[in-house]
Write a structure and sequence with these properties.
The complex is a heterohexamer, with 1 copy of chain A (about 270 residues), 2 copies of chain B (about 220 residues), 2 copies of chain C (about 230 residues) and 1 copy of chain D (about 60 residues). Helix content of chain A is about 80%, strand content about 0%. With about 270 residues, chain A is mainly alpha-helical. Chain A has a single domain (about 1-40, about 50-180, about 195-265), classed as Up-down Bundle (Four Helix Bundle (Hemerythrin (Met), subunit A)), CATH 1.20.120. In chain A, helix 2 (about 55-80) crosses helix 5 (about 150-180) and helix 4 packs antiparallel against helix 5. The longest helix of chain A has about 45 residues, at about 200-245. Chain A is globular. The relative contact order of chain A is 0.15. Helix content of chain B is about 85%, strand content about 0%. In chain B, helix 2 crosses helix 6 (about 90-120). By secondary structure, chain C is an alpha/beta fold. Helices cover about 30% and strands about 20% of the residues of chain C. Chain C is built from 7 helices and 9 strands, in the order βββαββαβαααβαββα. In chain C, the strands form 2 sheets. In chain C, strands 6-7-8-3-9 form a 5-stranded parallel β-sheet, with helices on both faces. Chain C has a 4-stranded antiparallel β-sheet with strand order 2-1-4-5, with helices on one face. The radius of gyration of chain C is 18 Å and the shape is globular. Classes of the chains: A mainly alpha (about 270), B mainly alpha (about 220), C alpha/beta (about 230), D mainly alpha (about 60). Chains in contact: A-B, A-C, A-D, A-E, A-F, B-C, B-E, C-F, D-F, E-F. The interface between B and E is large, with 45 and 45 residues. Strand 1 (about 265) of chain A pairs parallel with strand 2 (about 25-35) of chain F. The complex binds protoporphyrin IX containing FE (HEM), adenosine-5'-triphosphate (2 copies) and magnesium ion (2 copies). One magnesium ion binds near residues 53, 54 and 167 of chain C.
């Protein structure tokens, strides 16, 4: 575990993954998109709108997977003080929010032709909306502190609290919805499932793969970027500290070789 | 006017640097609105019936929460002292700050309101009046709220106290704001209600900067 | 809105107060206080904690109303607080620095407010006076306490005004910054400007008069504090 | 040509299908571009800081 | 346990000395609830239909506003440092503070809720379950909110941010709280819903003090 | 929960730190810092603003985690922060005084927290030590800054603990209070207690060792430093 705590080690592995993830993602998109958009047949019930599924479901899948990764990263950060795990969570969060948003929007664009309304207070839809808010909360909290390190820990705790609550929220919402609302349309998912056959599954899986590898590739980019941000912060801090010392004596001291720093102790 | 533009530009720049600030207001608006279906139940017909009122009430509460901070930071870091001492008329400074507040919180609320209206199943005819009413009403909300925010400077408990002072004053705006939506949905013209809202805005625009300036002066004493 | 620098006006300025008293939190902080500040003059306020130095400076700035007494500018009573505000700069315990803006942005805001528009050269001059130039593009949030305070002091330079009211301006400053502060105060006075400084150990004002606020504390203050303790 | 128009019409659901793909593209490509751009600016800034520090250290 | 009782007694005493604090929370609750008839219109049937939900939502918002300050004052005046250094387990201290918060804000909300329910024409059968549900739900609200309040210590804009963090987590409480009222009004037993609410409370009681303590520890770092 | 006073324990206590480093806001504030505090010992922390005195005291109290290094109590590493907290008192810049409570109520709260129950005689003794007795029934909101600070210092007396960590305890104190402070510190040390004081001019500690934090400020070490940064 602690092998990965070292940023250099961690980034070596991440950088090794990068070309594979990026390449696979591009290839899968190149194969999957034409199939999804052109060659796959329209669904007999949903006709052409079924094509929305090939972006909707991968987005929803990523939204959930990313929260899982963030929860794991936050736990590793809080328990083992693993700084890279936290950077991974931090770098993932905006992507998670974007994909949750995409799942919601594409879902709404699917709902209007299928159900005649953009929005239903269906259990699954609703718990996704709440997931979106959890992502926003994580981002807002991490951003709210003057000292970025404080934001890191607070956001990690929030992420863990949220992951305890997600199942509770999910089941409550499911239950709430079935209690109040048998009247409105049932979620299309079941309807689709019955008709699922290879012609739909193939593009779906291709797009799922493309999205997933895309996430890992961009994650590596964002990790590099986060690491650099931390380094820049440090550099800036020591620049300010250096400039604070104006008298020449102090200036001289600031450039002492760190190996020769005083070790004197006071007794 | 250079004071007006300087203060406005600075507040907008600060809001952009700390963009999470206006985003959180929008987020509160969205979340508080979304609570209602859970409380009231998911039936589209019931939600549609109360949609306009719910959007307005939560917009008022969201504006209120953000108003809480409109002068606090300047007060705490000493900027307010300096703004009182610019030598320019204080109401102008106040107006610049209120305009900046409205642009960074009122406008995002207006923009996102149709999305929330969709989730509450507001009839499509209501979107236009909803946005128009918010456009005419939120400046009044910011202006009146500024008076309250200036009055509670330096008290603990700013937030809750502010709601006590200000929420009752918002009731006329709320009544005509929701009436405008109601009217359109039921096929009547919303014109008169919107005119009244505009009237409120003009009234607030002429009175509130002076009242706020007076309150700020006693806050820095 | 460009305000003329003191040195340019032909008539020498004076600033005075007669019979001033101020009440805070139900207690009379000082009373029957008189002072006159000649052109180019400096007045150092002294006194133990709570004796009313800050209170007096805020009163002179027009922020706190006087319970009694009268302020005068060139002999004429001061009645328009906005006109009075336009001719003074006030440095308080609070720095009025926005952490999210850079040093330059912080200064150019105040330059725009006070003199109508922000001019690069003026900002550079102010930063040089307080040795901030190398920090010009840093967000103020990264500054140390002393650097922040220097940024507040640089506001004195961006737009000139005849009267400076400085509340413990030496706080958090290191030696060389204290020298810079002494220098800008001397320059200001050389041009006919006036300075009032509240301070516990003001090495940065030469040949200023001193006003000890303890002398104006009413004796019958209050039942719980100083008087009673003084008996011991 | 007709087949193309036919295809683009998506069986009458063009107004739902194409925006979905459009928004998805904006999201996916947008995140990629923003991430790359911040990476690039940070690389540049870090390089600058490093050079500045080297210069400062020698003087 | 002496730490628990000492902290509890002190917080209660402080709340009594500054009794305006709990009064303002109750006042916010009342005013925000009263806004709804203005927003939604005065028809008794509509109001009755949404009464339970509205009371619950505004109670959540009111609790949230008061939670905002639960640790702030201690944080700003240095008491929190000292409380972390008592040598007693921090979760115990947290629990004492949460209990005090609930006694001074949750309980007044419960007591006044029937009055507001009357103004919203809630059917009389609903009063009992409303109060019972609030009695079982508001402790959870205080406990979960304490985590959020500890997390936002030291940020600007605490209030709005807190709502963004915490309101989504309140949804299960809201769902079962209103369902309990709904059930009784429609003639079904509210028992199961109240049991679930009690379950939430137990869960929150076991987890939240630890999470809050962790958040407080990082706040005083 | 009554904690024994140091003087009663037969084994003499020591408190030491080896190789301590601490990072705040991304910057290493100090590193490779060692100290040993013998029983009855005092250590005065010195250094310019921002050199890390407050940071070190908070680290020693267990509030801020050390980036590197190890603390030891009687030679055994300190790993349970709660047990460590129970043997220290920390006086910080912030007074932790509740304005709405009286002086007595403020003290009795902390006495109850630290020693299980509030005893009148203990509170009176603490108030006498810091000359607060005549203010006993005043709400703290009426106290002056110096009186508030004396109330904070009186907490040192209500419940004894072997290690005192004092951050600029002389702030806002007048001469006679400074003497009282020196007296309680001397008494504490005479009983075998240990003291660490961060101070700019510590007249109230006799014959203490001095630790100048400026000597431990690293040049520009960064936590994230990897091979790349190491090259320089
Ligand atoms: C705002 C609206 C919507 C949201 C938030 C939403 C959300 C979700 C979520 C969370 C999933 C689960 C993904 C997974 O398990 O990997 C999902 C899957 C799916 N959704 Fe949606 N959805 C929405 C609208 C729709 C609509 C309107 C339809 C179709 C009529 C639809 C059809 C599907 C299908 C077919 C799947 C995958 C099959 C399955 O696992 O059941 N969704 N959606
Ligand atoms: N806003 C206020 N409300 C009530 N009383 C106040 C207020 N501000 C100051 N005081 C009181 O007025 C008196 C003078 O305070 P002031 O701040 O002017 O003292 P000072 O001489 O500046 O002290 P210091 O040396 O600590 O800066 C004090 O007793 C203080 O308690
Ligand atoms: N919470 C924090 N976040 C980030 N940086 C901090 C924090 N607290 C302190 N620092 C930084 O750590 C350094 C040391 O600060 P510290 O307060 O320990 O100094 P000090 O020696 O006590 O100074 P003073 O004499 O002013 O009390 C400073 O550069 C400061 O900016
Ligand atoms: Mg003062
Ligand atoms: Mg310090």
């Amino acid at each position: 575990m602690h092998r990965f705590a070292n940023p250099t080690q961690f980034m070596r592995i991440a950088n090794a993954i990068y070309p594979w993830a990026a390449g696979l993602s591009v290839i899968l998109f190149l194969i999957g998109l034409p199939i999804a958009l052109i060659t796959s047949p329209p669904d007999y019930q949903q006709s052409e709108t079924v094509r929305i599924m090939y972006v909707h479901v991968p987005s929803a899948w990523l939204a959930l997977m990313i929260y899982g990764i963030m929860a794991g990263g936050s736990a590793a950060f809080l328990i083992w003080r693993h700084p890279m795990a936290n950077l991974a969570a931090k770098a993932s969060a905006p992507m998670g929010a974007v994909f949750t948003g995409l799942a919601l929007i594409t879902g709404m664009l699917w709902g209007q032709p299928m159900w005649g309304t953009f929005w239903v207070w269906d259990g699954r839809l609703t718990s996704f909306l709440i997931l979106f808010f959890l992502y926003l909360g994580y981002l807002a909290l991490g951003d709210a502190f003057e000292d970025s390190e404080r934001g890191d820990k607070a956001a990690a705790i929030l992420c863990l609290v949220g992951s305890v609550n997600i199942p509770i929220i999910h089941f409550s919402v499911e239950w709430w919805n079935t209690l109040h609302q048998p009247s409105i349309v049932k979620l299309g998912g079941d309807g689709v499932k019955s008709t699922v056959d290879g012609s739909i599954l193939l593009p779906l899986f291709l797009m799922l793969g493309a999205f997933t590898f895309y996430y890992f590739a961009v994650l590596v980019l964002r990790l590099r970027s986060e690491l650099l941000a931390a380094k820049i912060r440090n550099a800036r801090m020591s620049q300010v500290a250096t400039h604070a010392a104006i008298d020449p004596a102090a200036e001289g001291r600031l450039f002492v070789d760190s190996a020769r720093l005083p070790r004197a102790s006071a007794e | 006017m250079s004071v007006f533009t300087a203060v406005l530009a600075r507040d907008l720049r600060l809001a952009l640097r700390q963009s999470a600030d206006s985003l959180t207001v929008v987020a509160f608006f969205a979340i508080a609105t979304v609570l209602f279906p859970f409380g009231v139940g998911p039936e589209a017909s019931v939600l549609a019936r109360i949609a306009g009122g719910v959007v307005w009430v939560t917009a008022l509460l969201a504006a209120l929460l953000s108003l809480d901070r409109i002068f606090t930071v300047d007060y705490e870091d000493g900027t307010l002292d300096q703004l009182v001492l610019t030598g320019a008329p204080l109401p102008v400074v106040v107006l610049a700050k209120v305009v900046a507040h409205w642009l960074t919180t009122g406008v995002p609320l207006i923009i996102i309101s149709p999305v929330l209206a969709v989730t509450l199943h507001l009839p499509a005819a209501g979107y236009g009046p909803l946005m128009l009413a918010l456009l005419l009403g939120t400046p009044t909300v910011s202006l009146v709220g500024a008076v309250g925010a200036a009055l509670v400077l330096g008290t603990r408990r700013g937030g809750v106290l502010l709601s006590l002072l200000i929420l009752p004053l918002y009731i006329p705006v709320l009544i005509f704001g929701t009436a405008a939506i109601e009217a359109t949905v039921t096929g009547v013209s919303a014109g008169p209600m919107l005119t009244v809202l505009a009237g409120f805005m003009v009234l607030a625009l002429t009175l509130s900067p002076w009242a706020t300036a007076a309150a700020l002066r006693q806050a820095v004493e | 809105m460009v305000r003329p620098m003191t040195g340019d006006t032909s008539a020498p300025l004076t600033f005075s107060g007669t019979n001033l008293a101020c009440r805070r939190g139900g207690r009379l902080v000082f009373s029957q206080l008189n002072f006159t500040l000649p052109p180019g003059g400096a007045l150092v306020l002294r006194g133990p904690n709570g004796s009313g130095k800050t209170t007096l400076l805020r009163l002179l700035a027009g922020l706190t109303p006087a319970t009694a007494g009268q302020l005068a500018w060139n002999g004429a009573p001061i009645d328009d607080p906005e006109a009075h505000a336009a001719r003074l700069r006030f440095i308080s315990h609070l720095d009025a620095v926005k952490p999210a803006l850079t040093v330059t942005e912080n200064l150019s805001f105040w330059m725009e407010v006070w003199s109508g528009k922000a001019v690069e050269s003026g900002i550079v001059r102010a930063m040089e006076a307080m040795d901030l130039k190398r920090l010009a593009s840093f967000p103020a949030r990264l500054l140390s306490a002393g650097q922040r305070h220097r940024l507040a002091l640089a506001r004195l330079i961006v737009a000139p005004a005849p009267l400076w009211l400085l509340d413990e301006p030496g706080n958090a400053l290191d030696d060389s910054s204290l020298k810079a502060l002494a220098r800008i105060i001397a320059d200001h006075r050389a041009q006919g400007g006036m300075v009032m400084v509240a301070s516990h150990g003001a090495a940065f004002v030469s040949d200023g008069a001193t006003l000890d606020l303890a002398a104006f504390t009413p004796s019958d203050v209050s039942h719980w504090s100083d008087a009673e303790e003084g008996e011991k | 040509m007709d087949t193309l128009m036919n295809y683009l019409a998506m069986g009458g659901y063009a107004a739902w299908v194409w925006p979905s793909y459009g928004l998805a593209t904006i999201g996916v490509v947008g995140v990629l571009l923003v991430s790359r751009r911040t990476l690039k600016t940070r690389e540049r800034e870090f390089e600058m800081l490093k050079n500045a520090r080297r210069g400062g250290g020698q003087s």
